[in-house]
Amino acid sequence: MSSIAPPPSAANIPEATRLELYRQMIEIRYCEKRAHDMFLQNLVKGTSHLALGHEAVAAGFGVAMNKDDYTFCTYRGHHHTMARGASMLSVLGELMGRQCGLMKGKGGSMHLTSAENGVMGSYAIVGAHLPIAAGAAWSAQYRGTKQVAAAFFGDGATNIGAFHEALNLACVWKLPVVFVCENNGYMEYTPIGAVTAVANPAADRASAYDLPRQLIDGNDAEVVYQAACDAYAKARAGGGPSLIECLTYRHGGHSRADPGKYRPKDEVEEWMKKDPVVLYRIRLLQAGIAEATLDEIDATAMAKLEAATEAAKASPPPELASAYTDVYADGGAAWRN
Question: CA 111 → CA 59, 94, 291, distances in Å?
Fold first, then answer.
């Protein structure tokens, strides 16, 4: 595998930012683990795709964004939704199908949306959101707002036509959009290398669109954060899109129904040694940040999680009448007739 970008100097990132990166990673990790536990208790209905192991990508890009920027997620989008400011309660509530959820219990795990936080939807159709992200970037460019759209997708989406179409048009029009590939090595159950002509499915195709090759350690929050800052700055300055491939690994199967037994045991063990949350805590301690400070962040996150869990359990399911709302602009179908 080709070399990846080296970690940035710690001096480039303020301590407050580093602690915010850690806080987000911890909150995402705790919330995702709780979602798994609640599924085992039959409290989470339907399928769900957890992002355990992907926390550094969400935190790095989320912390670097402006409040009015846009995020477009895949069905594995809990982490990006929380990184933009959605609460644990609203995420867990949606997974449980409760009225306290982001979409009042009607969307579920694969369709998390939080427009007030710039999360313009999670998309269950692979690659479908990439042209939409380009469209949002085009809108920002037209309005001159300096907003940036960030579209996150898995390695499998790089073999979808929409990936190439969106990337090509974004480059032609120099749109302020950042395409971020979370390469965890697998397209559902199939190793990405088994069906792709290049070793790095996003980075190795960048040159076809006259973009620089960017392959980074997606388990290093600071590497991700610095890459995000650079890409956002380029986009805001009119420099056009970026394509960034983040190497990472999911700790579990593709979805809640997948035990992930198709992955070699030694491969899983090696990636588990690169746990982004564990490694970042070690780095912060080595940098001189007090253990008590990190422990307080952990404790606060756990307290928030416990409160969110109990509140979500107590929240009622959607009323049947709500099935007829939020469907069309006027809340019903009468206008079509």
Answer: 20, 9, 37
